[in-house]
Amino acid sequence: xxxxxxxxxxxxxxxxxxxxxxxxQAPESELSRIQAEYxxxxxxxxxxxxxxxxxxxxxxxxxxxxxxxxxxEQTGDRQIDDQRARLxxxxxxxxxxxxxxxxxxGAQGRLLSALQMMSRRPPPPxxxxxxxxxxxxxxxxxxxxxxxxxxxxxxxxxxxxxxTARRRMRMISA
Length: 174
Prior knowledge:
Layout: H1 4-24, H2 28-120, H3 133-140, H4 150-173
C-alpha cells in the first residue's frame, strides 16, 4: 500500500504537469474561435450602443415634439376660451338688440296706428300748424316719445336757427 501512494502521487503529478502541456497543445482553432467570438461580441456591443444612442436621440426628438404639441394644445385651449367668451358677449348683445328691436317695433306700430287714425279723421288744418304736426300725433298716442339722434338734433337746431333768422328778417324789414 505504501507503494501505491507514491505511485498515485507520481501519476497525479504527471497529470498535473501534463495538463499545461496539453493545453499548450490545444488547437489554435479554439483560440481563433474565442477571438472571433470576442470580435463578434465587440461588434454587437457597438451596434447596441449605436442603437441605444439612436433611441436616445429619437426619444429626445419625441419629447420635444410632445412639448410642442402641448404648447399648441394650450394655445388652442386659450383661443377656444376666448372665442367662447366672445360668443357669450355677442349672444348678450344680440339679446339686447332683439329687445330693443321689439320695443322699437311696438313704438312704430303705435305710431302707424295713430297715423292711420289721423288719416281717417284728420284734424282741421287751421287748428294744427305745420311745425306742430308731430305734437298732434303725440297727443293722439302719448306713448310715442321723441327720438334724439345726432341727425335729428341737427335738424332741430337748424329749424330753430331758421326761426330765429326769420324773426330777425321780420324785425329788419319792419
